[in-house]
Design a protein that fits this description.
Elements lengths: L6 E12 L1 E5 L2 E5 L8 H6 L3 E13 L3 E16 L13 E15 L2 E10 L4 E10 L4 E10 L20 E13 L2 E12 L10 E15 L2 E13 L18 E6 L4
Parallel strand pairs: 3-5
Antiparallel strand pairs: 1-4, 2-3, 4-5, 5-6, 6-7, 7-8, 8-9, 9-10, 10-11, 11-12, 12-13, 13-14
Length: 263
Amino acid sequence: MQLARQWELTGFYSRIRRDANQVDSITVSSLQTSGLHRTAAEISDKASLLSQDWGGHLRWQGRQASLGFTYLQTRYDKRLQRADRAYNQYEFAGHTNTVWGFNYTYLWRNMNFFGEAGRSSSGGVGVVSGVLASFSKRWDGSLIFRRYDRNFHSFYGNAFSENSRNINETGLYLGGKYTPNRRWQVGAYLDYFRFPWLKYLVDQPSQASARSFGVRTALVKRLNGPFRHFTNKKKRICLLACLKPLWLPPLPVVASGWVLIRI
């Protein structure tokens, strides 16, 4: 809905039945996302949870900047209660979750600033913000920071992260690209991230880093050959949030590289 020249309002509502692992007639332990209904248990979980979502988005668009405000509430007809495990201590539990937040973009010369922040009913906050810059015709770079509290709950969030969900993570990403000519392109990135709380099969806070270097070339018209080398260095260490003074030796470095030629 166009409210004014620079203002736009969007509203939405959804009502759908979803697959969920039933504990009893009023409780589910998790949502099923595989879409499979092969066994008796999977069949009984089919469409067992009613999910309703409603909210809206208000957007202001300027010449070089934009600003948006979002509200989303999700309500289940059964209580979602995950298994009683230490790593699930800060997971969502209940019938209703509300998320509100804002997002922005700003263009300044050859740089594009962007970001989004949100807060869930639990009080947890999720933030992602960064900048894309073109330093010259040959050099480009990017910098992205993200932080998702261990009690931040966003069922439909799909922001930049190492985890499959936007929860329990803080990280900083730095990337660059060099294009000397139309046939060659060199790129690299460094991503450092940590998980302040426990994870499945990880019994204490942990941190990791990932590095990548790649070269893409097109020497002839029908030959395009990228080469990439990826190094993923992970180690588990005790951070300030540890519940007990348990120290584990670093995990081994995992490195891999490959060459792909497309003809």
